[in-house]
TrEMBL record:
GO terms for cellular component: cytoplasm. It holds the Pfam family PhzC-PhzF. One of its GO terms (molecular function) is isomerase activity. This is PhzF family phenazine biosynthesis protein. Belongs to the PhzF family. InterPro entries: Phenazine_PhzF-like. Keywords: Isomerase.
Length: 187
């Protein structure tokens, strides 16, 4: 078992994730129990068969269906061990690829199909009209500006009622090449 601080750098503390390599999958309740005992936001469990690596992610609340920082930590652990530059992890939700470039890691996550949906702004506790609302596994709400995302005051009681989604994401462009987002999960 190793703990990684992911998304860290100068002035940034990171997001801790434990990585545990297994020889086979124990019952789900044992994985959940291990994650709770470690008391980090996410624990990544990996079972490898030769060059094939399978991954599952758990928080203290239970299994997570996809986790970016948990994938980066698992990829870093495997790449550190193998001295390779690229690894693909198999998950129930599609392949996750991690590539090491110098001191940085690049992450490729599976994508989900965009679905149109009609959620009233009041259901989210929004006071402004969103530019777009759609769903994938998550409910994605596109706002007009970075300021609108930062100023959003979440109404968790209303957000919890949107439990048909894994999470609620509020996002907006912050420049021509970048965006901001706030992520509320699990619902």
């Amino acid at each position: 078992m190793k703990i990684f601080d992911v998304f860290c750098g100068e002035g940034i503390q990171g997001n801790p994730c434990a990585v545990i390599m297994l020889t086979g999958w124990p019952p789900e309740h044992e994985l959940a129990q291990s994650a709770r005992r470690l008391k980090v936001p996410v624990t990544s469990f990996i079972v490898s068969h030769g060059l094939e690596h399978h991954i599952r992610w758990f928080s203290a609340a239970g299994e997570i269906n996809l986790c970016g920082h948990g994938s980066l930590a698992a990829g870093a652990a495997l790449l550190e061990q193998s001295r390779q530059k690229r690894v693909t992890l198999s998950s129930r939700y599609g392949p996750v690829t991690i590539v090491k470039n110098a001191n940085r890691y690049q992450l490729e996550l599976p994508s989900w199909k965009r679905n149109n949906c009609s959620i009233a702004k009041e259901q989210l506790g929004l006071t402004i009209e969103p530019l777009d609302i759609f769903s994938t596994r998550d409910l994605v709400v596109v706002l007009e500006s970075e300021g609108a995302v930062k100023d959003y005051n979440p109404n968790f009681k209303k957000i919890r009622k949107l439990n048909q989604f894994h999470a609620v994401i509020l996002t907006a462009m912050s420049s021509t090449n970048s965006y901001v987002l706030r992520y509320f999960a699990p619902i």
